[in-house]
Fold each of these.
Amino acid sequence: MQQIAYRGTPHDPMAPPLELTHVTVGYPDGRRHHALEDITFRLEATEQVAVVGPNGAGKSTLFKLIAGILKPDQGSVAMYGNKPDQHVCIAYVPQRSTVDWSFPATVADVVMMGRTRQIGLFRRPGHRDRAIVQAALERVGAADLADKQIGELSGGQQQRAFIARALAQEAELILLDEPLSGLDVPSQEAIFEILADLRRDAVTLMVATHDLGVAVEHFDRVMLLNTRLIAFERGEDVLTPENLLRAYGGHVPLPGAAPA
Amino acid sequence: MIDWLLDPLQFSFISRALVAAVIVGIVCSVLGTYIVLQGMAFLGDALAHTILPGVVIAFLLGLPLALGALVFGVLTALGIGALTEREMLKEDTAIGVIFAGLFALGVALLSSSSGSYTIDLAHFLFGNLLGVSTGDLWVIAGLGVVVLATVFLLYKEFLVVSFDTTLATTLRLPTRLIRYVMLVLIAVTIVTALQVVGIALMLAMFVTPAAAASLLTRRLPAMMATAAGIGVTAGVVGMYASYYLDIASGAAVVLAATLIFVVVFIFAPGRGLLAAKR
């Protein structure tokens, strides 16, 4: 697969791949609580980050904000110096439970969807698009699944198909929402291998997970979130008793004891 | 048997009806696949009903019915699009309010006219396939071509918006505009199908062939082609049934489509009722 490059909008190569500055997001119905409050952090290029926190901590809201689906009420989100909606190189891999797997599309169809913008309005996929889709499928070890309907796949295969779609999109920042939930251990290992391999493509990665053990073991840094940013350090430095108490209250899911 | 099929065609009104049924069978079924995939059946039904006042006003003023239907159809498509963007009311509640209100307005307008109220209303509600004029046929064909051409040109974009609106957003596609275009296409298709099945049974022309096709296919182009085939078959069978059995054309077409669906639902390889039992 060719090196993933930015196309179409100006990048500031000196700016970090992602920078949030004092970001606050409310709920649309105007509840007094904020979904996210005063979030500030920056990512390094090709960094791989796990985002952990209890249910309702704002993980999904954070991802939607970065993807440009939500706008911050206060503060700013910048990717390589630009607002998220100026990029087509942010890919969002949804939770498997939110996808309509009965949809009449094959794996190759779904991966080709990632090319929609680059192909352009009123045009059909060309040689280059098909080559990129094929390369993306090979990268995730799913070339032999290309003609399967997406509902015929196992959970791990479904996840790999969507990672291939993000690659076909030529994403530079990939957000994965709970990619491991419901997968058996071999499938999880296969996903980790693919993710580790993404550094070659200059892809920066954020992964939401509820598995603290996985977060510490497989990621450069761990972001502990509960409406506010509680800690964002290397894994073992984040999961201190004080931090965990602040994030989870009394209900700490101990590393290793978290559901696989 | 051949005579039985060809005899009615010596009447030009039957030939016109047949052509109209074939076109509408294709256009409704192709667009219906998007309605089925996006779970928009209620919205499609509502849109069909809201065009009644437009049709009645055109009828009372002596204008082409399609014109009144088109204006009201497009206006309500845009209105529903706008209403569902706000979060003041739940989407289906907002649609329900508009749908019933405008339909009532149509019935009220028609009942206040001096004409043959019940016959006119029946034609609007259940179609009047055997009354398709040459002018009607041109309108049906013209609008049908517009709808199919738009679906062809925006195929990729419609596919992404139907499957994954989040992807559409991260690809920075004009998601709102695409949804509006879809709603307007549904409205235009309703206008083409008005004379064939009528307002009350419109939903079936959208949903039934597409639902049957979804049980038989694994890719969208195949689903569209299969749905179109089922829609055409239902249109033709319904037309003959309407002629020979003297039943209302819209009802005949929809019953034919429903029959095909039931057969598919039971016998579809791999996914039918019989396959599931094993």
Amino acid sequence: MLIELLKPLDRKLLRDLWAIKGQALAIAVVIGCGVGMYIMSKGMLISLAETRAAYYERYRFADVWAPVKRAPNALLEQITELPDVRRAETRIRAGVILDVEGAAAPITGEIQSLPKIARPHINDIVLRRGRYPDPIHEEEVLALDAFAEAHGLEPGNHLYGILNGTKKKLTITGIVQSPEYVYAISPGEIVPDKKRFGVLWMNREALANAFDLDGAFNEAVILTSAGSSEEALLERLDQLLKRYGATGAYGRSQQISDQFLTNEIKQLETIGRLLPPIFLLVATFLLNVVVGRLIDTEREQIGLLKAFGYRDRAVALHYLKMIGAITLIGIVIGIILGLWLGQGLARMYQDYFKFPFLLFRAPADVYLLSIGFSLIVAAVGTSSSVVKVMRLEPAVAMVPPPPPDYSRSARWLEMLAPWIDQPSRMILRHLYRWPKRAAMTCIGIAMSMGLLIGSSFSMDAMLYMVDISFNVIDRQDVTVNFVEPRNLRAVQDVLHAPGVLAAEPFRAVPVVLRNGQRTRREAIIGLVPGADLGRLVDTDLQPVPLPRHGIVLSDKLAELLAIRAGEPLRVEIRTGRRPELDVTVAGIVKTFMGTQAYMDLRSLNRLLKEDIAISGTYLLVDPDLTDALYTELKGTPVVAGVSLQEQAQNAFYETLQESLGTFVFFNTLFAGLIAVGVVYNSARISLSERGRELASLRVLGLTRGEVSYILLGELALLTLAALPLGALLGYLLAWTLVQSFDTELFRIPLVVSSSTYGYAALVVVLAAVASGLLVRRRIDRLDLIAVLKTRE
Amino acid sequence: MEKNEHPAFRAEGLTKLYGSGESRVYALRGVDLEVPRGEMVVLLGPSGSGKSTLLNILGGLDSPTEGRVYFDSWELTAFDDEHLTRFRREYVGFVFQFYNLIPSLTARENVALVTEIAEEPMTPERALELVGLGKRMDHFPAQLSGGEQQRVAIARAIAKQPRVLFCDEPTGALDSKTGIVVLEAIARVNHELGTTAMVITHNAAIAAMADRVLHMADGQIQQTELNSHPCDPHELSW
């Protein structure tokens, strides 16, 4: 046997470890969860950031986008000559309505031009399958892979597109990916819907013909030189391009795909920063308790070893090895778990973010750091016990410790005593005698519950956010965007479409908003007064009327501009005659998604010095007649895009279930493991300390149930006490997460439903009961005979 | 004792085997025994003679490999765990060598722990007075001396008015003076309450206070000695 090759002390180590295998494993698993979570989130963060950087670099993702209405191609030279421009390219990009066989609802999409020869230099595309369109075949297009896959489209398949009002049959020749559509989401939506948002690439000449842009472009994309000021360049571009109907250049921070990607990376960062420390803290606590008590029970052995002549250091090293072994098992579990979770997450992201490659790969320093953290945890958790081993005098250690003194009990407890039975008195006095231990157990259990709430609450919050956004704020069923701003009469036309019950016009106007040094490029949404579909709500989520004058900002936008109601805001319109003027902030409204600015439609049009014109309408639709409406909309030339609320909601719920659901599932598992780890360890240690006491009671005639009550009743009491504390910790964790998830894209409301509290409490109680049952089996097998003879 | 009554205990052919194969050890080898009610019985013998095993089997803590044990008219060896627990709970008092008091309960509460679940107990106060601890009832074990702790243990064992009292080396951890005080408490319970008492000891001097002395060796009762004039514990010395 291998074991015989070891020194006696090391054999003892292995046998001791085996004897406490359950407890050791529970601790190792908790360490493993912390390490795994760290490797997963940190590794994913790095993988995602590196993949993004490499992808952007290799396919030359633009730094700046400058959309215009129509500018001559010759202008490229002037753009290229602007300071800070490393390289510029012009292209045509337009909204398109797509019609795929088998899809009833119209699909909103974008179509981009491909250079006549060669590939785009900026925002290059990745050809996954098929070939580039042939310049002589006008109808040939490339399709974005997510969209193509969602509809089962392959090279050679056809689809229809309404290009500038003309329906065209298009042929797909290739399936591509693009750094501009890593997160392929339609503007104004909250989650990507592969089926409902399509992107096509077409030969420039063909596209120019379709959109009357011969010899012209409608978007310049730019790579900037390193160290340049983006804001200055945006200003220069706006100046240069304003004659050509520039709606305002923007940088990567406002590019929607990159925005979502950045958001995801930020969330990973938060998770990586918040969750692993919780696990490691619990592991520290468990190590402290288990090793501390183990050493207490081995006092005599320690004394004996020292009496035989083992040095303090050798004895301490023996225990350090045991701690090290547990930690090492934890690290191994953690690395395996981290890799497994990381690869799983990478697969999930692959489905979500379209990268040509995404490999989960954590650099060596992530592993080293997690190992380092684990060792620190082990050291912090056990240093006091190891010092105790070093200091123990052999003579003292060989004498059994005196019975614990319970005479200093609390007065309130003694006043209570006459009304409760002896076993309950034992429970209360025991808790009172070791308050620190009780508190630690309680906090450990509470942490697991807090973790559960902190991770599950996001589901509540998201559902709440969507409910408010779709059912209180934006209540329309369908949003129709026109190709060009149209006369108000267009509303009447739409009202005649089948199934339309009500129509509310809106106008979207690109603007630059300035308050002192702070600048935001946004769109002002003009709404009709008394709007019933597109509404505004105050911070209490009560609908508020749109003020007749002035501008209304969403709370996040006001925060970003550092402006309050009543203060003047510089508004520079980036369309039409491009007026610039100060507008008073008439109110702040609550929104959970995006950064919006609203005005009364008439005031807005007055500002533009135009007759009332609208960009689109919100529709309330008879659900039975949607198909007829969709057919009509698909055939309406003036419609540039249609967004469907219900489908957006469904896509959101689906995404939520997939991504958040998985996240919640794993956290439930981890939190359950923590709860089991804490309760099981506490129970096991109590059992080993009080086994003699409990066995004596069995000999005296107490039943198994009565004896179990003494041990498990204490844990039940601690578990119960941990529930309110856990709820509080969970709320705090949720609060922290809400703070760090507060971005321009989303503000997650701090909503924790009572069912989430209930769910967390249930998981914790079940974990506690499971641990209790495991220990109960041991109580049932207590050796009654040994008790009569042995001394503690 | 009237003749038509059952003895407190009757055992037939008790054998207890530990282990198997080459490592098997006989703790008891066919022990036959009858213990009349109300007697003070001392089991004497060197360690490993089987006296503890015998006591454990009679007390319902262990079961023999072979043989039968009767308590009154019941066959203990036919009982399952639940019935054995009830048997201990209602009829048996145990006193351990190392007292085994509950440190988180006072002397009175340690006794109450048993009286709360017994059918016709005496009050904890009365039990503690019987062992001479009427004045230290509200002290915790940590505040009591070894002898005092052992007397609390005796009070705890007798408070339910058990039919039998089993004491395994009750004076083993005590000096002789304190040991005698403890033995006096056991003798008093035996005389005043008529409780059958079985005391294990390897201290031959204690045998003088017994009605019946069982000498054990090698898993067998080698000799049964009847003592028509047991002496008072305070006359003992060792």
